[in-house]
Amino acid sequence: MCGIIGIVGQTPVAPRLIESLKRLEYRGYDSAGIAAFENGRVVRRRAEGKLRNLEAVLQSEPVQATVGVGHTRWATHGRPSERNAHPHQAGRVTVVHNGIIENFAELKAELAGQGRSFESETDTEVVAHLIDSELKAGKPPVEAFKAALDRLRGAYALAVIIEGETQLVLGARHGPPLVVGWGQGEMFLGSDALAVGPFTNRVSYLHDGDYVALDAQGARVFDGTGAEVSRPPKQVSSSAAVMEKGNYRHFMEKEIHDQPEAVQHTLAAYLDPVRMRAEAPDGFDFSTIDRIQIVACGTAYYAGVIAKYLFERYAGLPTDVEVASEFRYRSPALSPRTLAIAISQSGETADTLAALRHARAEGQKIAVVVNVPTSSMAREADRLWPTHAGPEIGVASTKAFTAQVSALTALVIAAAGKRKKVDGNEQARMVRLLLEAPRLIAEASEAEDEVRAIAYDLSKARDVLYLGRGAMSALAMEGALKLKEISYIHAEGYAAGELKHGPIALIDEQTPVIALAPYDELFEKTQSNLQEVGARGGPVIAVTDRRGAPHLSSTARLIIAPEADPLIAPLVFAPAIQLLAYYTAVHKGTDVDQPRNLAKSVTVE
Ligand code: G6P
Predict the structure, then answer these.
(1) How many Cα neighbours within 13 Å face the side chain of 333?
(2) Is residue 510 domain-shared with residue 562, that is, in the same domain?
């Protein structure tokens, strides 16, 4: 998703804008630009593609300024090009924007009717024109800005500069987050705390509907009604250190190897290793509910599907899981004794946030399993159940996923205990198993040599099928998603038993099948499915454990994962599918950390 930075500073602004935009690269983008005041005039530099292209433009046409705005664009309206890159300008006004202005076509027609002409295909340009026309009508800057905001429908975060107001940056938040960074005689506006991280760790989070006027001395914040409000700054942890890749080639590789720690930190919030008990951080009593409704998107959705298997199996708690973009637009039958759980790494995904609000409007109590504790979802939920994966930079989620699955598994144990499905001894056994997960995940991440060799062959495939049974079918779908996201190879995840009902028609010598087959009570069934694949010439790769290996060595190439109880098997088998996708993408030479067309945090519908 688009990234925003605004700076009212004392030192050259162009390198600072670029530095901040680099921190925002992880969100995914396809063009970038900056605008700043040079001798009182606004100058603009933009480039399609990566930031190095913008840096090259700045090298040949430098900008001498201390106040300006910058943007990384992830195309929604209009293809990625220099012309569509932000900032956009009209008259005295220059705008950068994240989100979508839903009524832009209507506004554009109206503004065109007044004789205004447009340079780009974007929805953003209408915002610049609207503000400019309010200025022309004689309104002072902040009032003109507010009048324009009142005309906008949709989701947006904005940063605006106005010719003639060289010490002013305006911002507004309606949906996607926006933060104000407080420096010493300098002020910053950013799409998240990472954007302002190079300059300050004192940050105010704007509320939905807020707008703000920054100058070098401070910020005046107004709520949606126009009343001036206080949004006091908070100290946030320094982001600079955790953003380094260390010795790894990609953030994704680092994050795969960060998983034992991410899971351990997360479990520390849920497990009591002395009493051998599991509990939600806020002590939630699962015996007060009859049903769980999970909503999430992408990888977080698959964490939810795994949780469904576990909640039903161990806690006897009926659990539904739905992708948030569907849930929000239908009329789900919800009962008062249902707990809605949203799962999200970022806590900002527009569909998940809207689903959460939808459930709230229907009178549901909401819990969120979320990695960013200051995010919109964290702030809006009744219960915050954190994951402690640390910032995840690779667009393809890895450590946030295992942190989600580990938090949810701990909640399953808590629910099983509170609902009297297990006695104290059994609960202690389950806690012991879960406490072993970080070590087993570390062991699983060591199978790299086999994985690399298999990935080389996978990188030649056009289609790949992933199979699994039980919770492993959800991990199969997550495996397929990982491969699609970063290697651009078409992949599908299936419940192994469904193979014969359709997908088996796809099998030929060119279509590898990857089976997730721990030696559990369903192992033999999966083994039969793999024989059906082998009989049709399909190359089979099995991720199994030491006990399963002898049974599969004649049918499949093997990746050996540590033996694990079914309670934690999804966690222990996750590194294998992540590394397979990672090395396949490396062999193909794709942009692993910022795959094409994808965004880390999708703040539009
Ligand atoms: C985007 C990302 C996915 C992520 C999904 C949900 O599509 O590319 O990797 O799983 O959003 O994100 P969330 O922050 O809500 O977990």
Answers:
(1) 0
(2) yes
